[in-house]
Structures are given as structure tokens and as C-alpha cells.
Amino acid sequence: MTEWDRDWPAPAKINLFLHVIGRRADGYHLLQTVFRFIDRADSLRCEARGDGRIVLATPLPGVPPETDLVLRAAQALRAATGATAGVSLHLTKRLPMGGGLGGGSSDAATTLLALNQLWRTGLDSQALQRIGLGLGADVPIFIHGCNAFAEGVGERFTDVDLPPAWYLVLVPPLGVPTPEIFRSPRLRRDTPPIAAADWRPGFGCNDLEAVACSLYPEIARHLDWLRTHGDARMSGSGACCFVGFADECAAQTVLATLPADMKGFVAAGLDRHPLGPVTTA
């Protein structure tokens, strides 16, 4: 099997906490969060083309090509490096759209990581993260590749060691547009910052949760059910919610009691992104 024959994973993330500590003059919000990767993932396959075109072979319903992050990532890498090779991109989508699990951002990051290797463009992690940040604030963490305490708009990282955990993740039947949450006048934007070294598992909350729950009662309903089983939180801007367990059996036991009108899955927390550190060619 060659590099061109492999599947490239694009894992989900959850936010173990998410605080909004301010807002920049340009409107971007200043955040503090801890990102953790989990073993639920989309996957990407890249097929070489001889005509120099970049083609998205698996367009997502309702997503125009000009906004598709996989296509935009490939085009951004080409623009940054002058690469001329063509590629057809085949994405297998398993993560919910608008779920707060970083699916689109992870897909974009995996596209950059895969094509950086396949096209032999030789960019290091920092260069790829700069390209990724132009695509979305969550893209750099998937290129950084380690669980991390993140600051700024979510692009400055301090790596963290996290204990083993299994997560029951619920997927409400809706997608949340992230800009809608951040535009809300009800969003708290003055949570006091902490030092990365002071963070501990279980600390804090998700400042976006109150706004998301007020706009989407289904998120509140799913959180209420989860909170009967532990310290449940919303991930990102929603809609997905999660609660952690020390072992898989405990998580699966609670999943088995899930009401018939709710959907969810159990996933292990990962120590790092499955593609590991960036290597240049």
C-alpha cells in the first residue's frame, strides 16, 4: 500500500471547558479552553489526478463548494506553496455537522496534513497552523496534534496530560451555527482568565452553553438527561454534549439507558491526534 492508498483520519474533539474572557477590537472573542481528541472520526482518501485540478469527489449536501473546508484547505495549501499536482478528495463523514465536535475543522486539518505529505510541500507544523487559522479558529489544534490548553482565539497551545477517560456523547438532532452563539448579546464575555498551569479536570464550564440552550431547547433537554449521570457539558458551540467516565463499561451501561428519542455514542479519549506530529519531506 502506498501513501495514496491510505485513509487519513480526522478525529473529533471535545472542549473540557470553554471560557470567553474578552473580545478583540476586530470582533474575535478571546477564549480559554482545553481540547481533547476522541476516537470518533471522519476519514479522507486522496486520489492523484494528472490534470492538475483539485476536485471534491464527495460534496456535502447543502454545503456550497466555495465554503467546503476540505476543498478550501487544499486550495489554501496550493496557494501557499505553489503546488501544481491535482487531487480528488474523498471524505467519509461520520461526525455531525454543527455539533461542536470540530468535524469540519478536523477535516480541513487532515487535508492539510495529508497533502503536505503527499505533495511533498515540506511545511512544518507552525506553517500549516497559520494556513489553518485562515480557514477557522479550531483548525490549528488538529494540526498541533496534542491535547492542549488553548488561548487567544483558540490558537495558542500549552500541552496537557489527561487521564484516561471514556465519553458518552449525545447528538441532538440539530446543527448550531457558531456565529449565532458568538453574536448573542447574552453571551458572557468577561470570565476571569486562569493560568494554563492552574487548570485541572473538572474546572470551569462552557460559557456558550446558556446561550445555546436558550436558543435550542433540545440541547438543554439532552444536557438535563446527561446530568443525571455526571458532570455533563456542551462541547464548543453545541449541539453535542458529553459526560466522562473512568472506564468503557460504565459509559456503555449509561448509553444502554438512553431514551429512544435521543442518539449518542461512546468514544475513548485520545492522548494525541492519530496522525501524530508533522513530518516534512
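(the above was protein one; protein two follows)
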Amino acid sequence: MDIDGARLLSDLRELAAFGRVGTGVNRLAFSAEDIAARQWLLERMRAAGLEARIDGVGNVYGQTPGVSKAVIIGSHTDTVPKGGWLDGAMGVIYGLEVARTIIEAGKDGGVDVVSFADEEGTFLGTLGSRSFVGALGEDDIARAENGDGEELSAALVRAGYGHQDRARLDPARHIAYLEGHIEQGPRLEAEGKRIGVVTSIVGMRRMLATFHGQADHAGTTPMRLRKDAGARLIAFAHDLTERLRDVAGPDSVWNFGRIAFDPGASNVVPRRAELLIEYRDVEIAVMDRMEATIRAAVETADGGGGVRTEAVLLEAARPAHMDPAVGAVIQAAAAAAGVEALVMPSGAGHDAMHLADKVASGMLFIPSEGGRSHDTAEDSAEADIILGCQVMVETARLLLGRTA
């Protein structure tokens, strides 16, 4: 079965018009642009022959009618502020095009399509996929709000979704979940590969290290007598970088994403300093080792230069592992299309990390030009976009053939 590449690209371009900002898109969850895009997608799903609706958290969900078994394909259509036109959206339109192709071919089995709400976390990260697998509580909704202070519950009512039932994964129906995505990094491009098969989605932890010193006049206080929280932070960050290199795995990454000095004046010794640390890996044991290393560095630093040092864990997400059998099918589908896939982890989070605990799941990547994403410069070659969807339809066909 061959997809209609021109139709695929046309839908992607049409979807990108909702919230267009230059070459990118600004379509935050439950904004006017996001709501309009969801309505557009609902109509496209219905025109394709799917039984579609928008559920109580904003998921747009379409089912192939008259079938008992289906592969579900999806991603998200919301964006980060001034983000790219393909991040998430491509995976949803892949699902739509694969469903149309299979329906038009009159094949047995079906494809269900979903656009999960608020993957990017305007209110609550991976809101829609968490709801879809039954991992979202009412208290989660009650606590969530956006950066402007609007409550998620109010936003759902404003959008017209709040009183709808929530769609759910159906283990009796859904034999697998597939998600297509741009890589959002440089590996595929660097290695000259056009398809990536994801083995795991990394886990992520964030810690906040805080340094408590004493504010003094920066011109009159001798260096040896200062309790300089800022200087201790800088020394700590240098030391921690070396320590983490010694314990990291081959796929480990870490980042010092924010530094803040209080009071932040050129002529005042900082009384307080904060360092936000994020680290990721596909193995919990490696993440545990990295956390222990951070805590050991804090213990070493504590009290040095008269500065008290402490660290707290702010957030943690477990790694998710894709189904090896589904990954093998994606590789076979890529080979049928004449390309060799690169087997690789995903360094970014995706909705698939929630689906993977409930149903056999797989992800495929296509190259991101220059490795760019979460920016209006994000782009991928049209030929790669089409190839990825062709691999996706062949993957769905092979998976559905196993249930015939």
C-alpha cells in the first residue's frame, strides 16, 4: 500500500496555518488556535471515514468502524511557545494518512488515530496520554494551571470539553501503539540515516541545589571573609560536571538549566544562589547513580566558605521501553522501503512513554534538519516526511496481518 504523499504534506501545511508564526507555530494547549486546530482535525478524521470525537480532556480520537482489532497511531498537535510545525503534528497526520490508506484499500483490521492534548505541558505535561491510559486523577486536573494562572478545569470548560466522557485505551481492541516523530536532535542526520527506531524513552529527574551565604558589600568585604553563595555555586557546578562524567552511561545527558543569584547586584555578595540540574538516561540504575553523585557533591560542598548547601528532588519521570517486537517490525518496514534504520533511544519525552506500560508500543523518527526543534527553525525534508509515513503504513499493515 502506498500513501498519498501530496495529501500528507497538504494536511501538514494546512494544520500549520493554525497559529503560524513565521516558519513555525504558536499553538499552546487550549488556546484559540489549538481549539480551532482540534476542530479541523475532527472534521478531517470524519471525512476519512473514522468515527471521531473530542473527549473530556481535549483528545481528538477517531476509530475505524466495524473492526474488532486496530493499531492506534498518534502524537500531539499542541506546541511550545513559538515552536516548530512538525513536532507532534507530523505523528498525528501520519495516523490520519495511514488510516485513510488502509480504509481506501479495503483491508481487514483498522487504524485508530489520536491527537493527545497538552503534551507540551502548558497546563499539565502529557495530559491527554495520561488520561487515555487511566493515569490521570481528578486531583491532577484540580491542581493544574498555566503560566497565567488559569486553572485547567476552567480551560476545559471554556474549550467546550469539560463535560465530555474521556476516551480510553481498549486492550481488547488495540494491538499496538505507534508514534512517528521528528528526531529533535542531530543523530540521524550525522549518521546519514533516514529512519530511526526508538528503543527507549529516557527517564528524567530535576534537582534544585541551593546555596545559603551572607550578603555583604562587594567593595569593602575581603575575599577571604566572604560567605559568597554565588562563588560556591560556580565551584560546585564545575566539580559536579567532572563527577557526573565519571558515572554517566553512554546515553546519559545532564544540564544546568538555570542559575539565580540573590540579590543579583554587581556590588553585593550573593546571599543565596540556586542551580537547577536536569539529568536523563534510559536506565533507572544509571539515574540512581547520577542522583547519588549529586548528593555526594552537595555533602562535600556543604559548609565550604561558610556557605550552607542543600539539594532537593523536584521532579522525576521513569524511563519507558518500547516493545522489541514492534521495533523489529518497524525495522522490517524500513527495509521494505529500501532504507536501513538506526536503532536509538529518545532523549526527549513523548506520549508513547505512557502508552508503553499498557500496550505494545513503538516509535519511529525521521531526521530533523540541523537537529533543530522547539523553535520556528524546525524542519525536515519533504522526502523524509513521506518516507516516514510509508514506513508507518507498512508497519501497521504487518502488525494487523498478525491478527488476521
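Reviewer note on protein two: Residues 5-202+319-401 form a domain with the Aminopeptidase fold (CATH 3.40.630.10).
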